[in-house]
Amino acid sequence: MARDVEVASRRGRIARGLLGWYALAIYVFLFAPIGLLVLFSFNANRYGTFPITGWTLDWYRQAFNDYQVHDAVSTTLKIALQVTVISAVVGTAAAFPLVRSRLPFREGIRIVLILPIMIPGILIGVSLLVLFTSTFHRTL
Hints:
The chain is mainly alpha-helical. The chain is built from four helices and no strands.
């Protein structure tokens, strides 16, 4: 009996170790390109290649001194603030009646409110359907 517990715990440790290494590999796969972009942003070479020819902040100076970047950032922040305020007000105003009251078509109203969140997934699904049917020349 004690031997079975020992074998199970040994297998569990091995499985946890393998899953840990697998998770680490996934994180490296996802975040290594971001790290390389940050590294190349300090490269004096115009192209992102190895070896690093020198370290510079010129790319950041050029970006921060560009009026178009300033205009784009300010426009983005203005729009983000407006959308946040409108979304919070409309979402709160829509949530209270749906939760507190007994409307006759409460589920239908909830679906109508959630529909804008679902539309991108539906469009991607339809687009993939069109792509695969045209690629494999099959009809439904």
